[in-house]
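ENCODED BACKBONE
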Amino acid sequence: VALAMKFNSLALFLANQKTAPFLYPLYTSEPSTHTLFESKTNMALNVMRNDEIMSLDASNLSTFMESGDITAVQLMQATLARVHQLNPTYRAIINLAPDDVLLEKAQQADESPRRGWLHGIPIAIKDLSNVKDFPTTLGGSPLVDHDVVSDTSDDFCQHLMDAGAIVIGKTNTPEHGLGSHTFNSKWGTTINPYCSSHEYKTAGGSSGGAAVAVATRMLCLADGSDMMGSLRNPAAWNNIYSHRPTS
């Protein structure tokens, strides 16, 4: 059963054996983006710059993609451009799939009937859960083989893909998700985007990679997990909202 709540963007979780809470941006001080396509005749074939596309929240992205004002390929191109620009600094997303593979999936989404409100929207999964064709390193744990890719997806990940989401990679987490600081020897330290250029501050944890991916707008939403604050403290420290559903 999928439940959705609207608050600037959509927070979705799946009431299944595993829950999938999401992190989403706090845009309260920014102007509404609903006027971007107010006049199609003035939009020069409705082409938007990458930064305009990546400024949209999940709700608006879903709406514009349903209407055809933005294609999945355009969104994926904008997403990859931003990830390649920012991720080397912030180290939020790991095991990013090849660009050509992701663009092909986006093209397939454009050519297919909509499967749900997430149709064509890029997402990354916290590196504690399995997604088919991606490795699960459990935060770079030395106890697992980092080169082995999963042959199945966890239930909630499959539900997300069934709703049309395109998984582009994983998000960084401390080893086995243990800790409120997102770092490990394999993937390095995820950096809080609100720190100054000469001073590193923690992104929190253990869903720090997800929080930073959303805070830097590399993604419009991301999943995470939380037992003792692993969604809540990264959200607070990165100026975004998180939603932790009850079981």
